[in-house]
Amino acid sequence: MQTFSYTRAETVEDAVRSVAGAGPRTCFIAGGTTLYDLMKLNLETPNKIVDITGLRDLNHIDAGGHSELVFGALARMSDVAAHPQIADEYPAISESLWRAASQQLRNVATLGGNLLQRTRCVYFRGGEPFACNKRDPGSGCAAQQGNDRGHALLGGSSSCVAVYPGDLAVALVAFDAKIDVLGVTGERTIAVEALHREPGTSPNVETTLKSGELILRVRVPKTTMGRASTYHKIRDRESYAFALASAAVALDMDGDTVRDARIAIGGLATRPWRARAAEQVLAGKTLSQRTARQAGDAALHEAKPGRNNSFRIELGARTVADALMIARQRA
Amino acid sequence: MTSLPYPYTIRVDAEDKVRGKPIYAADDNRPGLLHAALAVSTIAKGRITDIDTQAASAVHGVRLVLTHKTMGAAKSAGFIMGGGYGFQSLQPMLSPAIAYRGQPIALVAAETLEQAVESAHLVRARYAEEPFGVSLDAPGVEVVHQADTPLKNFIPEIASGDADQALSKAPVKIDAVFKAPPQHQNPMELIASVAEWRGNKLTVHEGTQNAEAVRHGVATALGIAPEQVEVISPYLGGGFGQKNSLQMQTLLAAVAARETGRPVKLVVPRATLFHAASFRPESRHHIRLGAERTGKMLAAIHEVDAQTSRHDLFPGEYTATSSRLYGFGSFRGVERLVRTDVQTPGYMRAPFEHPACFAMECCVDELAYSLGQDPVALRLANDTDTDVATGLPFSSRYLAECLKRGAELFGWTRRSMAPRSMRAKDGSAIGWGVAVGAYPGLTTPAVAHLKADEDGCVVISIGGHEMGQGIRTSLANTVSRKLGVLPEKVRAVIGDTRAAPQHLTAGSWGTASAIPAAEDAADAMLMALAEMSPAGIADRTPAEILKAAGRRTLEVEVQRKPPGQPDEILGRLRAGLPSVAGPVYRSHVTFSYIAHFVEVVIEPGTRRIRVPRVVSVADCGRVISPRTAASQVRGGVVWGIGAALRESSEVDPRYGGFLNADLADYVLPVNADIGSIDVEFIDKPDPVFNRSGVKGLGEVAMTGVAPAIANAVFHATGRRLRDLPVRIDHLL
Amino acid sequence: MTADEQAADQAARGESERVDVTLTVNGETRSLAIDPRTSLLDLLREHLALTGAKKGCDHGQCGACTVHLDGRRIVSCLMPAVQTDGRAVKTIEALASPNGELHPMQRAFIDHDALQCGYCTPGQIMAAVACVDEGHAGSTEEIREYMSGNICRCGAYVGVVSAIQDAAAKMRRT
């Protein structure tokens, strides 16, 4: 790890001022479970770090409002997961949190940081000698002709097929959540769905955040669909692992008929992936094993298999289908 | 005394462990310590043409940067399976040659760990690259028939009868190919050395299964006398075969300590470990099994291709165990070694026996189904008291009892034979599978020193290493029973070259080698006590006798060698060389056995495979420490679940080395992967094998788990999956 | 990077600006000037001689370094020590009572032989105590899920689960 200078921000404005305009090697640190990890791998090499964990007014959970759930960017994953109202009324959000990482990490990791978690692609994290356009633009993408069992089937490009590894963002995308960010020019709002970029020709640029912008809070529109929701996550082991495929679904049912469905998938794409085509398949239909499976197929319809990952097209479809049946039980 | 089962005593070092007492090498914090870090090769094969350490040396706090140019006079300590001491013959940083990706090219020693790590990352090397291959089927790899190598002298090919002819005439045949991937031991403790020189004497603190080899190996490498080196390794944070010889980092730490005049601590990071120590080689198994329609097995041919390195021949001993599972009418084993551009593979818990039992026991299940016979009944019908490979009797073999007791505990009679015939309420497929495992009964020589004092303490100094298997508890139980003292009054000094010669602790021979020697020592002490006590020693403790005789202490020393071994074997022991006998002895053959019964549940949709229930019954002779032994079997089952469903070291042929080199991507079982594991022991002593009646346990525990799971998956799905690990990929 | 920046970068190598940190470790206040790169794990092990927490991966992938920070379990390897300023750390060394009496969880780990080599054990026990305190020891399944951040290569998981069930009952009583 390289040396860096370390300062603690006293206010959000102070934090944004310290980072914006200070150059690309200045960054915020909150829980640090991604940043510090990547610094140990020499993949992040900041020369200045601004610690925002002292900004107490960013650490809150407000579930009592009329129209929105509001989570401060510094709310801990474990706290949000265990919040009784979230667990009860928005199980998909709670599950997306407690099915991620371990309790030790969730006790430290923040919502804002979790949204910005970087890929687990082994060729990215492995550093030299692997070619990686995300780490070293122009060097190529080792995954495309390599072991891509865990790589993206959706949203990839010839430059990069690294999966976005987070879980929470997938659930948030299903619920049309937004984030408020603060930059030197003031506050703005971004849909979580618009936060992450597909790699295209510049996989090193992962989000639509501008330099120095700080996530302040996450806002989730309240919906009665929250109760009939789940985050279903399939992994190589039962816990403490990233998704091979996951699905966040929420249902609005009229008896056996689907009035409205929200479906987003994780572990399969380069960014949190809202599956609107799958939602349309279900709208107005009776929810059955068959229609759930049709929705699953629709969610993966555009999937482009690589060398070793085609099984995850079928797995993804079945994950969506199973998630729908789990959510159905909660309607 | 061996006729009585041992009590369920507490693990003697458990309290220190739950308190987190500093007992592992990397816990050492001696004053003046420098921290070391490594830079490693990014190419898979070739030569370093230029190495630039300028930036690395400029880092504040750096006291030394070592490369092959600055290592000074040092040589390889040789390969442990080739008459030397190292996990491979190649000692990194002695030449510019690069044999595999991840090979260390430089060491930095600095005042702080942060400085050392930063500096090591700044070492820059230029290379001339050469073509390479890292897997069994890679172009350019070299295949060697083991029987054409010097290895044939101590690993003879198994051949009994005319297996080819018997197979050709067999009315029922199974012919299948199985694959087992490379895997890494990944004990939780990182390999680490703390090296310190006092004058011309070197002390090494290191978690190792083989303190004597580290001692003699470092001495050889440095060109100094072994008397100048002492190695202290009271505890390992897990070994599993990874730490069974001189590792590459010990010499580097020793040289760095010598050059800086400071103690040096080198802890090898997890990612580096995937290339810095040994691993279980990739292997492929072609099995042909022939039987009568009654189920009697007429012939088995087991051909193995297993990975080795370019620079060493890591032996294959797969068929030595597969040939011992049943009373095959005839058997032929073939072992081929495939030279690839990797560090030399090595021993990882049940190194050969796990893949060999996987292949053979899956075949036996296939045979049971092709005959329409119950898999337990077929196994019982083919049991044998006579070793097919040699014609000698087994010293003890309670495999049938393991199968019968296991079937009873598991409720096997409630199983319906047909695949896909058992379902859970939620539609999940249920599969019940069985398989057996075996492991050779090996023994080494041992020197045991026993000291009793008037305060009631007894100290046994003996060869052995505590890596969690419970050797300290076994020694305490044995000495306690023999001398009539409480187990907590017995202290075992092990893993310490100052105390007694330290033979490699591996191959499940630890207990079978140390316990009889400890009993010999206790007998010698009882005899000495009797001599000093004319009133007799019955019902009196050594302390009472010593006090009565006006003596403060009494010391005895014994040495014990395996049956049929010449006295020279004790010289090999003292020289830190492997001195192993078995499983074939003059009048008998010894193996340990186990039977596993497994339930798998497979989801209807996403096809996740769960293992909610395992029953394991083991024959390891007399159980010396029932509590720790049961834990060892449960651990072996967890390893089997990992091997069957999770673990694989992945390779990218373009880059060499291993790809998934961390604990997030190398998928080890976690708590949520494990259900109930019920363990029982036959607990019948094997007095032919040794006076204590004890056979090995640590590795047999793992053998047979993977095939029991694969057979259960077949029962649940009707699919025969012959490549490990079995994953969702294969069941969708 | 310009040549000047490179030179500045070069000069900075190895020589971090030290940061003053005051934290409570096992009830004792410690004030140190530390390299901001130092992890809490390395601070405990290499600077404060508290070696109970272990390094198994250094990347938050094994749980061997688990300690409590302000009463919650964390992996100390992924916690920059500078971020613990003003906070309270508790390690395995302070789990037993001052008179040396074992915590019920330590006792239960012995009784259920929930360990083998002992290397992951301090992390398992610190995680297990938190697991009970959090209210995540309600069922076998819940314990297994909430203890999955602590890898035990020896495979002592069955013992870990029974030890937690045993200790949880005793912890609730006290």
Number of helices of chain C: 6
Low-confidence stretches of chain C: none
CATH topology of the largest domain in chain B: Aldehyde Oxidoreductase, domain 4
What's the mean pLDDT score of chain C? 93
Order of SSEs of chain C: HEEHEEEHHHH
Report Rg of chain B: 26 Å
Global Rg of chain C: 18 Å
Account of the 3D structure:
The complex is a heterotrimer of chains A (331), B (732) and C (174). In chain A, 28% of the residues lie in helices and 21% in strands. Chain A is built from 12 helices and 12 strands. Chain A has helices at residues 12-19, 35-40, 77-82, 84-89, 91-98, 103-106, 111-115, 122-125, 168-174, 276-282, 289-299, 311-330; strands spanning 5-8, 26-29, 48-51, 61-62, 68-72, 178-183, 186-191, 214-221, 229-235, 243-254, 257-266, 273-274. In chain A, a hairpin with a 5-residue loop joins β4 and β5 (68-72). Chain A is globular and about 60 Å long. Chain A starts with a strand and ends with a helix. The mean pLDDT of chain A is 97. Chain B folds into 3 domains: 25-130 and 187-239 and 243-276, Aldehyde oxidase/xanthine dehydrogenase, molybdopterin binding domain (Aldehyde Oxidoreductase, domain 4, 2-Layer Sandwich), CATH 3.30.365.10; 144-183 and 280-441 and 586-730, Aldehyde Oxidoreductase, domain 4 (2-Layer Sandwich), CATH 3.30.365.10; 443-574, Aldehyde oxidase/xanthine dehydrogenase, molybdopterin binding domain (Aldehyde Oxidoreductase, domain 4, 2-Layer Sandwich). Chain B contains 17 helices and 25 strands. A 7-stranded mixed β-sheet of chain B has the order 3-5-1-13-10-11-12. In chain B, strands 7, 8, 9, 14, 15 and 16 form a 6-stranded mixed β-sheet that branches. In chain B, 65% of the residues are buried. Chain C has helices spanning 3-12, 40-47, 104-111, 121-133, 140-146, 157-173; strands spanning 19-25, 28-34, 66-69, 72-75, 88-90. In chain C, 36% of the residues lie in helices and 14% in strands. Chain C is of the alpha+beta class. The longest helix of chain C has 17 residues, at 157-173. In chain C, β1 (19-25) and β2 form a beta hairpin. Chains in contact: A-B, A-C, B-C. Chain A binds chain C through residues 1-6, 29, 32-33, 36-37, 39-41, 47, 49, 51, 53, 78, 82, 98, 101-105, 107-108, 238-240, and chain C through 9, 12-17, 19, 35-37, 39, 58-60, 63, 66, 69, 72-75, 78-80, 82-83, 127, 130-131, 134, 136, 144-146, 148-151.
